[in-house]
């Protein structure tokens, strides 16, 4: 490996931190989103959403899984994309109209209950931590592969960079920065993938796939319960995306429900473009470097393949590019998550102590304390845990989101009979089941028996249970339906008046 | 520049006022919600049907697994690339239809 990789990583890290520092002057508070909402088009907003969304799991994890287990792993990129289709169909426009800034905000407004808000806040923190963990893992792995440094170095570098940029930079980097991150990541994955593909065709490279690797649901690579895990993955990603803590806040930049829909549609296009490339690298890795499977470190296939297939300076350049792209992925997702978790921690947890001192500067201090807690806890987990499969760990965060916020959002938006105890019970039961399952899989695994598989990918059973609990408890407590439910639902579903029509409507 | 929650609250008041004094509006809104939900469910069912149909077809007709296009297995090509246009198309058709529903709602409310 060359020094170019280290320079590229250092550069992208410095740029990210510098942008965070510079962002202090540009974006100070949530009101900037309102300013932005008048100038940011769906295209740029969608780029920003995609930039924040594409994490280590997308950049490294998918190629690694495809490399190891073959065609069934294509459900990861499909699921990560279809999650936005489901969000578009059922959530985007009504959620924007709710005016909620975070999921706890939505929960409180829709159910008129502080208890639902608090449980939602706790779940945001848990999901955020679960999602941050593999970002640190990916950073440790990347740096150790490229430089031979121990894993903890990379984990620490990303954690410190995130804390510095978020604490110093304030609430959130501006839309255009995240938008730039998307286009950078797309370039950093597309250029190596296309180069490898061209070389493969030109040189008549090794045959595409081994037997079984390309047969759906074959359980290739020693996967148990291939049908169950595929269904569980589909449920988790399709239904979990809407509940990710760092996604919703970006929808606020849309001026109205209709533009929230158009933004989501563009997100679908951008993600579709990005997700064409990681599987190409995974598949060509299988063809060129089948020996990598034995090392158990398939997540590095994106990093090592370019130089393996294209020796010389061009290969080194591609490695430097993917390394920088990978770090851009860790940093942008991790900062987005840290901001969301820190916001919830400072508002709903730290804010509970000493509500009397609710001045602006104490709010900023709480936010900074929240940021440190938000980053340090998953960092400790990442340092304690061994090497985990990145995309699998991220899928756990999706499973928890799907088991909790998906019922809350879908039933909250579309079902007038959702009651406060119903929502609470769904969040608590779904959250407890999913969190217990994935943390025991993380801490006690890897399991070899079939029930271990049920714990690692719980969504197929935990999501239906959460929905059933919400519906049954709500039907049993019809007197606890929030009093303003009809008005709230009207607000969620009434299209905004066009300016001139609003005028005529008022003078009617 | 007002705070987001203030704006939301204003919108809520406007909507509530519209609902309180206009009976027909409420019925129109309820029919809009029903239409939107039905549309979303249809679009979702279409996309999920297409997606799940691919592996089912590949398993049901194993001969398909032997077909390769430009040295790449067909099933691979469909799942890694071919499904994305289907996802985008269902999203696009849905977005247009949902906006049409809302336009119709606006016309109906103005007439009411």
Describe the structure.
The complex is a heterodimer of chains A (508) and B (112). Chain A has 508 residues and is mostly helical. Chain A has a single domain, classed as Sodium/glucose cotransporter (Up-down Bundle). Chain A is built from 24 helices and no strands. Chain B has one domain (22-111). In chain B, helix 2 (23-60) packs antiparallel against helix 3 (74-111). Chains A and B meet through helix 2, helix 5, helix 6, helix 13 and helix 14 of A and helix 1, helix 2, strand 2 and helix 3 of B.
Give the secondary structure arrangement, pairings included.
The complex is a heterodimer of chains A (508) and B (112).
Chain A: H1 3-26, H2 31-39, H3 42-53, H4 56-69, H5 75-90, H6 92-98, H7 103-111, H8 114-147, H9 151-169, H10 175-202, H11 226-240, H12 248-251, H13 257-274, H14 277-288, H15 292-295, H16 301-309, H17 313-349, H18 360-384, H19 390-414, H20 420-444, H21 450-456, H22 459-476, H23 485-493, H24 499-506
Helix pairs in contact in A: 1-9, 1-17, 3-10, 3-13, 4-14, 4-17, 4-19, 5-11, 5-13, 6-13, 6-23, 7-8, 7-19, 8-9, 8-17, 8-18, 8-19, 8-20, 9-17, 9-18, 10-14, 10-17, 11-19, 11-22, 14-16, 16-17, 17-18, 19-20, 19-22, 20-21, 20-22
Chain B: H1 4-21, H2 23-60, E1 68-69, E2 72-73, H3 74-111
Antiparallel strand pairs in B: 1-2
Helix pairs in contact in B: 2-3
């Amino acid at each position: 490996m060359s020094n170019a990789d280290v320079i590229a990583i250092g550069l992208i890290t410095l740029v990210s931190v510098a942008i965070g520092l510079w962002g202090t002057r540009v974006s100070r508070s949530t009101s900037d989103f309102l300013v932005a909402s008048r100038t940011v088009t769906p295209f740029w907003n969608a780029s920003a959403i995609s930039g924040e969304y594409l994490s280590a799991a997308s950049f490294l994890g998918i190629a690694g899984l495809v490399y190891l287990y073959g065609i069934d792993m294509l459900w990861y990129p499909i699921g990560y994309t279809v999650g936005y289709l489901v969000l578009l169909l059922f959530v985007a426009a009504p959620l924007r109209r709710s005016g909620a800034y975070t999921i706890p905000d939505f929960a409180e407004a829709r159910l008129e209950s502080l208890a639902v808000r608090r449980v939602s806040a706790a779940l945001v923190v848990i999901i955020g931590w679960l999602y941050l963990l593999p970002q640190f893992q990916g950073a440790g792995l990347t740096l150790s592969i490229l430089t031979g440094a121990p894993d903890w170095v990379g984990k620490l570098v990303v954690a410190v960079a995130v804390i510095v940029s978020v604490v110093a930079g304030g609430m959130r980097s501006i839309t255009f920065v995240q938008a730039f991150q998307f286009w950078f990541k797309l370039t950093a994955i597309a250029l190596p993938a296309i180069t490898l593909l061209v070389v493969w065709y030109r040189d008549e490279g090794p045959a595409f796939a081994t037997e079984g690797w390309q047969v759906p649901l074959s359980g290739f690579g020693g996967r148990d319960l291939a049908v169950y895990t595929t269904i569980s993955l589909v449920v988790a990603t399709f239904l979990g995306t809407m509940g990710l803590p760092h996604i919703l806040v970006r929808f606020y930049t849309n001026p109205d429900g209709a533009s929230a829909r158009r933004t989501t549609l563009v997100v679908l296009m951008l993600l579709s473009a990005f997700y064409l490339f990681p599987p190409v690298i995974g598949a060509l890795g299988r063809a060129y470097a089948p020996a990598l499977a034995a090392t158990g470190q398939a997540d590095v296939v994106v990093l090592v393949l370019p130089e393996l297939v294209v020796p010389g300076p061009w290969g080194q350049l591609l490695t430097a590019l993917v390394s920088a792209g990978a770090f851009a992925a860790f940093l942008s997702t991790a900062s987005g998550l840290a901001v969301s978790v820190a916001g919830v921690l400072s508002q709903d947890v730290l804010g509970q102590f000493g509500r009397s001192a609710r001045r602006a500067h104490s709010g900023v201090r709480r936010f900074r304390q929240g940021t440190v807690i938000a980053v340090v806890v998953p960092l400790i987990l990442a340092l304690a845990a061994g090497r985990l499969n990145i995309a699998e760990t991220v899928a756990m965060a999706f499973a928890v989101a799907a088991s909790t916020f998906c019922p809350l959002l879908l039933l909250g938006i579309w079902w007038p009979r959702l009651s406060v105890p119903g929502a609470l019970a769904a969040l608590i039961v779904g959250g407890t089941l999913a969190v217990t399952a994935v943390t025991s899989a993380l801490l006690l695994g890897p399991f070899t028996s079939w029930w271990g598989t049920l714990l690692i990918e719980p969504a197929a059973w935990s999501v239906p249970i959460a929905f059933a609990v919400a519906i049954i408890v709500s039907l049993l407590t019809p007197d606890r339906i929030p009093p303003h439910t009809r008005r709230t639902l009207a607000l969620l579903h009434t299209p905004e008046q066009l300016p001139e029509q609003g005028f005529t409507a008022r003078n009617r | 520049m007002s705070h987001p929650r203030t704006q939301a609250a204003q919108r809520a008041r406007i909507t509530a006022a519209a609902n309180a004094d206009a009976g027909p509006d409420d019925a129109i809104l309820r029919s809009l919600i029903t239409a939107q939900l039905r549309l979303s469910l249809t679009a979702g069912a279409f996309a999920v049907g297409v997606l799940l149909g691919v592996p089912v077809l590949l398993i049901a007709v194993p001969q398909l697994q032997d077909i390769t296009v430009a040295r790449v297995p067909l099933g691979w090509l469909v799942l890694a690339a071919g499904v994305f246009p289907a996802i985008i198309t269902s999203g696009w058709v849905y977005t247009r239809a949902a906006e049409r529903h809302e336009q119709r709602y606006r016309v109906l409310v103005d007439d009411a």
